Structure prediction request, 236 residues.
Amino acid sequence: MLTPRQGLPALLTLCLTLFVTLLAPSQARAVGGSAERAAPRDPVVFVHGYNADPGVWGALREDMRADGYTDDRLFSWGYDTHLSVNEVLAGRLGAYVDQVRRQTGAAKVDIVGHSFGSLVSRWYVKYGGGTAAVAHWVSLAGPNHGTSTAWACALWDQACRDMTPGSYVVRNLAAGDETPGAVAYATFRSDCDEVVNPDDSVPLTGAANVAVGCLKHNDLLGDDATSAGVRAFLAS
Prediction:
C-alpha cells in the first residue's frame, strides 16, 4: 500500500503521462488559454544546462505566455556553467530567486531546469533553503544520478566532474530524501537521450516521473508534448 507521500507522486505521474500522451499540442494551448487558468501564477525561474544560455527557453516561454503568463512572471537565469554546483552556483541561484521574490512580491517561485541546471537547482532546494521558496521543481533531461558522458570533460571542468556518476554532488543529492520538503517535483526523460547515460538517471524517488518518448537531449526544450506536460504540472 502506498503511503500518502508515495501516493501523490504516483498520482501526478499517472495524470501527467496521460496528459502528455493524449493531448494534442493545439488542444494543450487551447486549454492553457482558458479563463479558468487566468489567476496569477507563481513566477517561473528557468535554469539552463551546460554550455547553454537563457535563449534555450524561447519555445517554452512562448507557450507559457500563450497560457496567460506575463513576461514579468518569467525569469531566465544565466550563469557560468563551468563552475562548482555546491560551492558557487547553487548559492548564486538562491540569491537570484530571492531577487525574483522581492521584485514580484511572490512568496514562492517555480523552477524549471534543463540538464545540468537540474543539479544546480536541486542543490539549492535541498541544501540552500529552497524548500521554503520553491513551490514546483521540474527537471528536463537532468543527469540527476550522474551521466557517463561527463567523463569526457571531467579532467579539466568542475561542472563535468559534478555530473559524473558517484561525484560529491550526485552522492549528496541522492542521500536521504531525494525530494525533500513540501515542494512538488517532476522529471521528464527521453528514452533516446544521447547526453544523459543511462536514461534512468533522470527519475527521482518521490517525484512525478514522465517518459516523453524518443527525443534527443535538447529536443525536450522545444517538444510540444513535453511543454504541455510541464505546464500542466505547474498548474497542479
